[in-house]
Amino acid sequence: MIRPAHAALLGLVFLAACAGVPEHPPAGTDRPTVLPAPFSITAALEGLPEGWHPYKLFRFKPLTQFTLLREEGVTVVRARSKSSASGLHTPVNVDLREYPVMRWRWHVTRPVDGDTGIPARADSAARIVLTFEGGREDLPDFEQMNYDLAYALTGNPLPFATLMYTWEPGKAPGEIITHYNTSRVKMIVATGKPGWNDMRVNVLEDYRRAFGEEPPRVKTVGIMSDSDNTGTEGEAYFGDILFEAR
Q1: Does residue 29 fall inside a structural domain?
Q2: Are the C-beta atoms of 20 and 228 separated by less than 8 Å?
Q3: How many CB atoms within 10 Å of residue 239?
Q4: Which phi and psi angles does 42 have, rounded to 5°?
Q5: Quick one: which of 87, 159, 192, 199 could link to 224 by a disulfide (CB 3.0–4.6 Å)?
Q6: What is the CATH number of the domain that holds 52?
Q7: What is the pTM of this model?
Q8: Is-contact 162 16, C-beta < 8 A?
Q9: 23-76 tens-digit pLDDT
């Protein structure tokens, strides 16, 4: 069962290098794509990117600050966490059998000294968070209890499944970490390299590997930066997120 101190992470589960800035991911590809609410086409830099919504984890903790700005003429989102934990998310409807590959770019400029495998240090300066369709009735009995407790503590239902890609140095890319309170949240180390990184992952294969089952549709995509457990500060930049065919 989930611990109250970390219940909001499960509620959040909304639903988590080169010197220069790389090209926007869709450039140069002729594959069919799905582009969830891109940051790069946002006209104004005030407020939040169009189509993205804040997700607050704790009522009593500071929010991570998300700001639009331009890097090399491309609009990106900067996340600054200061003993805070929150994210942005946007609804999608992605069938991974048609669009199994996800691409994005990010740049961590101030790492958080966290470790997603240790509850007291479970922070990361940058996460991509995917949640999947499915209801309480689709969960195993013991996870239904987690669902009910998460809803009671946070007012948010626990998603059927959540897959996070984390920026984390010191761990091997591709390593899967199961959340310490529920088997329905899996975290995969994407990279820990400095500078701008163009990322490409096969979510279909990763989901199968992490959960041992076929994935339902992706229903939300989110970005997150948290440093509440370590009480530190982090900073990261996020570019557009893209789903594409093989």
Answers
A1: no
A2: no
A3: 27
A4: -65, 125
A5: 87
A6: 2.60.120.260
A7: 0.84
A8: yes
A9: 333 444 455 677 888 999 887 788 889 899 998 776 678 999 999 999 888 999
